[in-house]
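Retry 2 of 3 after timeout on previous attempt. Resubmitting structure tokens to design endpoint.
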């Protein structure tokens, strides 16, 4: 049964450990790097960027993309620097007006109770964060002090808006929601509806839905054009048969995303043997709108040739229990072997399709059974 208390089912982590034990572990080929890691991070390093000033033209996005430690340091330093700057300005105003000298009772200062830089710094903090302890206050004696007060309030509001917006965007980033969108560890290739298909399984661990969820696939591999140009990362789109028959998927329970390997597929010429010796990578992108926040989220993963299982299919995970449907996530990544031709889809179409293949396999199977029965000792004729 599913865990009704937590978001992540109790057996899910155990399932992932069990998958690591039951499924064979594949090592990446020497010299072959993944374009997208299993957790969705892009394995791309940007080097020799000369126009670094472009990042400063979009300061807000740059602040959001920074690490939390750097963001907190900038958050703290922005307030401290503004307080120190305006504290120095208030001290200069008091010094220019003579407020730092001890005068008589008839003297009216620009700001009361400012006798040093420390008191000017404290007054700067009181003005910007609107504390107002009551001991220090501005008077109508100096017009410049009134203008500085207005400017500091505006600057403080701008800093608050930028930094608080940055903190909010970092805490509500879309990739946090993607942590509960899961993909099967392996992809499979098998026969489905008399067609050779490439399939993966996706699921959502949360009860809150992903609205207008869509799935896209791409094959990334090294290709050479007819003119001899080498494209190291050629991205080729893969057409998919949506399991619900519309543009979006209804991701309430785990779904199997299927791609029919036809003549327009980049996998059309691959056989079971060629797949293990071909450097290809299938990238899967799941996009949708988070129901609770309205923010668009994206989850990614990839499958290299060693992670594509030929001749297997996923086991069912949904069952009906006590008048409701239950999803067993312990079977999320489990597969079983099924009869599948080892040749490519191109050769399969040339041979007459899956129906002809099944017919030939049936004739071969019956012939082999007859040979075994004939060679059995009980069916041998006794020697004369």
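Retry 2 succeeded. Sequence:
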């Amino acid at each position: 049964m599913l865990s009704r208390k937590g978001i992540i089912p109790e057996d899910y982590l155990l399932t992932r450990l069990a998958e690591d034990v039951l499924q064979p572990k594949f090592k990446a080929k020497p010299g072959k790097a993944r374009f997208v890691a299993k957790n969705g991070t892009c394995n791309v390093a940007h080097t020799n960027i000369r126009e670094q000033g472009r990042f400063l033209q979009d300061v807000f996005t740059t602040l959001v993309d920074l690490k939390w430690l750097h963001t907190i340091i900038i958050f703290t330093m922005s307030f401290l620097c503004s307080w120190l700057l305006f504290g120095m300005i208030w001290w200069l105003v008091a010094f220019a007006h003579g407020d730092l000298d001890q005068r008589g009772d008839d003297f009216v200062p620009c700001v009361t109770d400012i006798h040093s830089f420390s008191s000017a710094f404290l007054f700067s903090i009181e003005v910007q964060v609107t504390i107002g302890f009551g001991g220090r206050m501005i008077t109508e004696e100096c017009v410049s002090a009134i203008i500085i007060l207005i400017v500091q309030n505006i600057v403080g509001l701008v800093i608050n808006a930028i930094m608080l917006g940055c903190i909010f965007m970092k805490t509500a980033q879309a990739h946090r929601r993607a942590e509960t969108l899961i993909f099967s560890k392996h992809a499979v290739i098998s026969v489905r509806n008399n067609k050779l298909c490439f399939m993966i399984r996706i699921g959502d661990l949360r009860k809150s839905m992903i609205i207008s969820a869509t799935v896209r696939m791409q094959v990334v591999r090294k290709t050479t054009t007819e003119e001899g140009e080498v494209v190291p990362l050629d991205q080729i789109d893969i057409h998919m048969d949506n399991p619900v028959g519309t543009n979006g998927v209804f991701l309430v329970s785990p779904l199997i995303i299927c791609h029919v390997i036809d003549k327009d597929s980049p996998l059309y010429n691959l056989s079971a043997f060629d797949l293990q010796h071909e450097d290809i990578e299938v990238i899967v992108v799941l996009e949708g709108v988070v129901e609770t926040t309205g923010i668009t989220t994206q989850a990614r993963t990839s499958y290299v040739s060693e992670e594509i299982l030929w001749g297997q299919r996923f086991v069912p995970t949904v069952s009906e229990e006590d008048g409701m449907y239950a999803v067993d996530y312990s079977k999320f990544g489990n597969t079983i072997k099924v009869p599948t031709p080892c040749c490519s889809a191109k050769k399969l179409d040339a041979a007459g399709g899956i129906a002809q293949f099944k017919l030939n396999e049936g004739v071969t199977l019956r012939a082999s059974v007859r040979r075994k029965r004939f060679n059995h000792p009980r069916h041998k004729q006794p020697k004369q």
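Attempt log closed. The chain has a mean pLDDT of 78.
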